[in-house]
Amino acid sequence: MLRKNKFHAVYRCFAGCEGEYPLEQIIYRCPKCDGLLSVNHNLDELKKVAGAEWRRLFDKRLGAASLPLSSGIWGKKEWINPAMEDENIVSLWEGRTNLCAAKRLGDILGIDNLYVKLCGNSHTGSFKDLGMTVLVSQVKQMLAAGQKIRAVACASTGDTSAALAAYCAAAGIPAVVLLPANKISVAQLIQPLANGALTLSLDTDFDGCMAIVKQLTESKDIYLANSMNSLRIEGQKSISIEIAQQMQWQVPDWVVVPGGNLGNISAIGSGFQMAYDLEVIDKLPRLVCAQAQNANPLYESYKSEFTDFKPQIAQKTLASAIQIGNPVSIEKAISTLTSFNGIVEQASEEELANAAALGDLAGLFTCPHTGVALAATQKLRDRGEIKQTDSVVVISTAHGLKFSEFKQHYHQSQLPDFKPGHANLPKTLPASIDAVFDAVEMHF
Q1: Whole-number Å distance between alpha carbons of 344 and 338
Q2: pLDDT beyond 60 at 127
Q3: Pair 185, 159: CB distance under 8 Å
Q4: Residue 303 included in any domain
């Protein structure tokens, strides 16, 4: 039987400084070393529930028909934010996304057991919903307790702003989003506008927007929604638990994750580690962080075995959501990859675009960031690091429909510097059966 009143979570310094801080405190960095914080759970109490019992509980909740347990996040509330009151939960039925058995793509890449976790099959079309439900719910609970918060703000390359705007709109909480001008897709720009957020398009890149939102949220009445806020990570770690659950509580050999600001690789590692510590799973996967070659500061650090890290000015990449040269979660990402015997790989613009198109030819509809992860997977398989019989899960971070311009330009051969390897265009014909028969005969 669950001892719900014993479950507890607090902020602690990720680097290990003494002190702990309640989740209702507005704090993003350690006051002693200025490092990032993490959310720490009372594992001693959680361990009093056997791993088999946690599995039974989560499996039972998977069939829940109403909120909050119908949410893939709040159905695992004890591991996420156990003090959250149900009436303050802001949920749009996030989580429970498909784990697609990508057999045809696996056959092409030479991987017998390839899966794609479709995190973009969510309310706003990206994995950012998973963390935003936790963060906005916490804000609602703080407001209910009398704290004064005027708005929630984020810097974004598109997906974070969409998730923040939607969840704040659902909660009736004002949202402010800072976006780099002319660097995100039209579909991503329209989402926060449609949800009523104050949308500020700044003449800079994501790192410039991030620097400004940090200054903006120094005022305690503007709450920060970027992954520098550790509550975001708590929601995103549910990806790991869902993967294990969808694989009948088995763990894949590899999980490949696109990396930009590096919160997601940290979250996925955190989820697997927690499940392992609580004996819900019996092994850990190897993690791969995949970066675009034009925005690859983690990859450059990996080449020196993480002995050196240098922020960079990210160059333009088709994978615009991970066009980040100074990632906030760098320390967490390095720690996670070290603990999981991880690898960092990169993909050129040609590699990521062709990998995304290849995924589409096998029945997917991939965003360019998923293309980065697929390209990295293909390179690791070609080098023999991933074996044919290994089980591999690729994290698809956003729905391909948010990047229809990228796909249009690929198939029209309008992307600069390379020719697409899998372009496919419609053939204009007269309206006659003979012309159609001829086209079919020529094609097949």
Answers
A1: 11
A2: yes
A3: no
A4: yes
Task: Indicate whether 38 belongs to any domain.
Answer: no
The DSSP bridge partners found for residue 396 are 118
Other C-beta atoms within 10 Å of 71: how many?
26
Domain of residue 389: give its range: 99-125+233-411
Residue 295 lies inside a defined structural domain of this protein? yes
CATH code (residue 400): 3.40.50.1100
- Compute the Cα dihedral for 106, 390, 126, 58 and give only its sign: positive
Distance of alpha carbon 252 from alpha carbon 167, whole angstroms? 32
d(CA 291, CA 345): 6
Does residue 23 surpass a pLDDT of 80?
yes
User: What would the pLDDT profile of 51-110 be if each residue is shown by its tens digit?
Assistant: 999 999 999 999 899 999 999 999 999 999 999 999 999 999 999 999 999 999 999 999
Beta strands in 83-128 (DSSP E): 99-101, 113-118
Other beta carbons within 10 Å of 147 = 15
Residue in the block written with tokens 């991030």: 210
Report helix, strand or coil for 218: coil
Residues 312, 207: contact at Cβ < 8 Å?
Answer: no
Residue with tokens 């919903």: 129
Answer yes or no: are the C-beta atoms of 176 and 151 closer than 8 Å: yes
Nearest to 30 by CA among 44, 40, 41: 40
Give the 3-state DSSP-derived string for 119-171, with helices as H, strands as E and coil as C.
CCCCCCCECHHHHHHHHHHHHHHHHHCCCCCCEEEEECCCHHHHHHHHHHHHH
- 414 backbone φψ class: left, alpha, beta (φ>0; ψ -120 to 50): alpha
- Is 288 in a helix, a strand, or coil? strand
**Is 384 domain-assigned?**
yes
Amino acid in position 46: L
The mean per-residue pLDDT over the stretch 194-215 comes to 95
Domain count, the chain: 1
* Dist CA 286 CA 252 (whole Å): 8
CA 409 to centroid of chain Cα atoms: 25
**Which of 402, 362, 320, 363 shows the shortest CA–CA distance to 120?**
402
Q: Phi/psi of residue 51, each to 5°?
A: -55, -40
What distance in Å separates the CA atoms of residue 112 and residue 103, rounded to the nearest whole number?
7
Q: Cα torsion at 54, 259, 359, 185 (round to 10°)? A: 120
Using a 10 angstrom Cβ sphere, with 0-12 exposed, 13-18 middle and 19 or more buried, the burial of residue 353 is: buried
| pTM of the predicted protein model | 0.95
Residue 80 vs residues 15, 17, 234, 281: alpha-carbon distances, Å? 21, 22, 6, 17
Q: What is the pLDDT of residues 232-268, one digit of tens each?
A: 889 999 999 999 999 999 999 999 999 999 999 999 9
